[in-house]
Amino acid sequence: MSDHRSMPVPDGLEGDRLDAAIARMFGLSRTRAAELISAGEVTVDGAAAAKSDRVQAGSWLEVTLPPPPSAPVPRPEPVPGLKTVYEDADIIVVDKPVGVVAHPTVGWTGPSVLEGLLASGVRLTTSGAAERQGIVHRLDANTTGLMVLAKSEAAYSVLKRAFKERTVDKRYHTLVQGHPDPLRGTVDAPIDRHPSGDGRFAVVAGGRPSVTHYDTVEAFRAASLLEIKLETGRTHQIRVHMSALRHPCVGDRLYGADPTLAERLGVRRQWLHAVRLGFDHPTEGRPVEFESGYPEDLAEALDRLREE
């Protein structure tokens, strides 16, 4: 079922191209916004308009949005390299390999942690959306390391609350370009979708509060190894905040990393790994902590830096 919207152009979009304005107002990509305009699904003050037309604040927009795509149904699918670190009746902690998402999403055809566990016979709680059963937090597809999933409904509700209330100790190591100044600090900057609508996130006024603590573990000639403690868990948070400091994660082309340095170190994705995860066990109450060593590609990059 399509979704018809009718509203004035906000003051903040005065002078923007129509496709850019539509993208920002409705959270679409510029390409998708342009397609809607070309299909005649957008009028400005009652008349058809071109995607390159400049909008004026207060002009009346009529937009017919397509129905959102339905979420994919998880199916058991083995995931090579997905390791179980710990498991009991309530939780399972895994070490996620590169190129694997947390759960199936629209447009993703690769492997997911959820489907890999289903293929291994692990029964997860069915609380929450069907395609996200047991998921209480996520890692990006190309970020490796520790994830906890809920197997019981009790564990699901307690862990969801723990992540929301920031009582989970999430530690990451990341290799960033250059040397942050100061060597230890906090980035407190709101994050939201990048205005371009191209899938990136960015520091945006009025975005969701986001706090990242960092500390330098080891400094090299062209890069620094940092330990990161997250207070919040926004999408791409570490990658966005490091880029905002002008020290992007090595290999993170999406957020401005130098491809030459990544190539020299043999890094083909962002150098970012979830090394530690600590929380109170959701049903037993005892503190638990898990650690993960660096995968081969990230360890090799560090070896190359130490030899320079």
Automatic annotation (TrEMBL):
List the Pfam families: PseudoU_synth_2, S4
Instruction: Name the Enzyme Commission number(s) assigned to this protein.
Output: 5.4.99.-
Q: Where is the RNA-binding S4 domain?
A: 16-74
| InterPro entries reported in the protein's UniProt record | PsdUridine_synth_cat_dom_sf, PsdUridine_synth_RluA-like_CS, PsdUridine_synth_RluC/D, PsdUridine_synth_RsuA/RluA, RluA_PseudoU_synthase, S4_RNA-bd, S4_RNA-bd_sf
Q: What's in the keyword line of the UniProt record? A: Isomerase, RNA-binding
PROSITE patterns cross-referenced by the UniProt entry: PSI_RLU, S4
Q: Where is the active site?
A: 140
Class of this enzyme = isomerase
State whether keyword RNA-binding applies: yes
Tell me if RNA-binding is a UniProt keyword of this record. yes
Q: Which GO molecular function entries does the Swiss-Prot or TrEMBL record give? A: RNA binding; rRNA pseudouridine synthase activity
Give one GO biological process term. Answer: enzyme-directed rRNA pseudouridine synthesis
Q: Which reaction does it catalyse?
A: a uridine in RNA = a pseudouridine in RNA
Q: Which NCBIfam families match?
A: rluA_subfam
Q: Which family does it belong to?
A: Belongs to the pseudouridine synthase RluA family.
> Which PANTHER family does the entry mention?
MITOCHONDRIAL RNA PSEUDOURIDINE SYNTHASE (PTHR21600), RIBOSOMAL LARGE SUBUNIT PSEUDOURIDINE SYNTHASE D (PTHR21600:SF44)
Describe the task this protein carries out: Responsible for synthesis of pseudouridine from uracil.
UniProt name for this protein = Pseudouridine synthase
What is the taxonomic lineage of the source species?
Answer: Bacteria, Bacillati, Actinomycetota, Actinomycetes, Streptosporangiales
